[in-house]
Amino acid sequence: MHSNPASAWDHERLSALDRSRIWHPFTPMAEWIAGDPLVIARGEGNELIDDRGQRYIDGVASLWVNIHGHARPEIDRAIAEQLSRIAHSTMLGLTNPPAIELADALLSIAPRGLSRIFYSDDGSTAVEVALKMALQYWRQRRPDPRPERTGFLAFRHAYHGDTIGAVSLGGIERFHEIFRPLLFPVERAETAYCYRCALGLSHPACGLACAESARAILERAGDRIAAVVIEPAIQAAGGMIAFPPGFTRRIVEIARAQGVLVIADEVATGFGRTGRMFACEREGIEPDFLAVAKGITGGYLPLAATLVTEEIHDAFLGRPEDLRTFFHGHSYTGNPLACAAALASLAIFREEDTLARVRIRAAELERLLAPLRDHPHVGDIRQAGLMAGIEIVGDRATRAPFPAADRIGVRVAHAARDHGVILRPLGDVIVILPPLSIRSDELERIVHAIAAGLREVTGV
Ligand code: PLP
Q: Cα(294) to centroid of ligand 1, in Å?
C-alpha cells in the first residue's frame, strides 16, 4: 500500500456522519455503524484512493462498472464538453445528439438482429423494460397476437436486479425470498452450476442435461411463456457461475423451438468483460432483447439500454389512439452526459483494442489462479474473461461450505484490503472483476492479496 500526503478530508467527521445518516445497499447496518468506513475520495487508473491517501487496487471495478480505469482524461473531457452545452433534457418528446450518436454506435456493435434502443438508467430498469415490452409485444403482435403469453422462464441462481420485476426473475434465495409476496410467479429452470450440479452429474460427461429442465418446462408451458431470461455465459451475482460451452446456445435453441422470445441480460457481461464486446458473441446468440448497463459509460454515470429487434418494435406501431405505445420512461432516460461518456468509452475500446487486451489479461489471470486450485479450502475457480470467482469451502472432499456465520468470504475480502486490494465477495465466492485496463502486475497483486487473505483467515 502506498500513501499520499495528508488530504483535506476530515475522516472522523465523514465517518460519524456516514454511520449516522446513510443506509448502505446490501449492507448489514448494525455491523456497518459499529465499524469505520473506508471513504473513497479519489480514483486514478485502476486504483481507489481513500480520504487519508491510502491507495487500493479496485478489484471489483467499483461494482463491475469500471472499464478503462478511473479519471480517464478522454471520458472526463467528453463529459465536461457536454456539460458546457447541457447536462440533461428529456427523451419524452425530445431527443439529444449524444443519445442519437450512441444509439447508432451501440447498434452497430450489438449482436445481429438488434436494431432499436430504449434507454433507461440501471441494469434493473433495462431488464424491467424488456419484461414489459415482451408482454406487450405478444398482446399486439400482428397478425397473430398471443395475449396468453404472460409468463417468464428464468434460472436458479439468476440475478437480474432489485426492482420487483427483476427480483421476480431472481433465483437467489438469500436476496429474493423475503419479497416473495410482492413477486409474480416465474417458471424456474435448472442452471449449469457444474460444481454443485443439481442432477449430481459430473461435467463434462453430463451432456448438458441441466438444459433439459428448461426444455421440459417449455414443452409443458411454452405457449404461456413470453420470454426466457438468461445471463449469457456466466451467472454473475449468483456466484460467478460460468456455464460450460454450449449451455447458453442450447437454452436459446430450446426457446426458439417453442416460439419463446429470448432476453439476454448482459448487464454484467456486456462491454468486453468476457473478452467479446457482448457475451452473446461467444456462442453466436442473437437475442430478441439485450439488456445492458454497468460498463456502458465506462463506469462513470448511470445509463442503461434495452436493445430490441425491429419485429418487437414494429408491434408497437399504430395510431396514437390505438394505444400501442410503450408507456414506460424515466426522468433521466438518455441523459446526455452519460451518453457522452459512453461514446468516449467506445472510442477507447477502438483506439486501444481493449478486447484484445482483455483476452491476454484473462489468460494471465487463469495462470495466476491455477496454484490456488490446490488450496485446501478452494473448492472451485470459475472464470469468463476478466470475471472470476473463487468458491471457498469448509471441506473440499464433501464440498461442504463453511458455516454461514463464519462469513468466510467477507473476512477474506477484508484481509485482502490490508494487502491493498478492494474486493467484495458473493457469499463465500471471492470475486475478481477489475477494470479492463488492469495491468499484469496489478493482477498479480490482486491474486497475491487473495492468497494472503485466505492464509490469514483459514490458517492454511
Ligand atoms: N442484471 C445483472 C446480470 C446484474 O449482474 C445486475 C447487477 O449486478 C443487474 C442486472 C442489476 O443492475 P443494477 O444494479 O444496475 O440495477
A: 7
Task: Write the residue with the smallest CA distance to atom 7 of ligand 1.
Answer: 161
Annotated domain spans of the chain: 11-71+354-458, 76-352
CATH of domain 76-352: 3.40.640.10
CATH number of 11-71+354-458: 3.90.1150.10
CA of 111 to the centre of ligand 1 (A): 20
The pairs formed by 166-170 with CB atoms below 8 angstroms and a separation of 24 or more are: 166/123, 166/124, 166/127, 166/128, 166/131, 169/127, 169/131, 169/229
pLDDT means per 10 residues, the chain with 460 residues, are 62 98 97 98 98 97 98 98 98 98 98 98 98 98 97 98 97 90 97 94 84 97 97 98 97 98 98 98 98 98 98 98 97 98 98 98 98 98 98 97 97 98 98 98 98 97
Q: Which residues line ligand 1 (CB under 6 A)?
A: 122-124, 127, 159-161, 231, 236-237, 265, 267-268, 293-294
Phi, psi of 182 (to 5 degrees): -90, -10
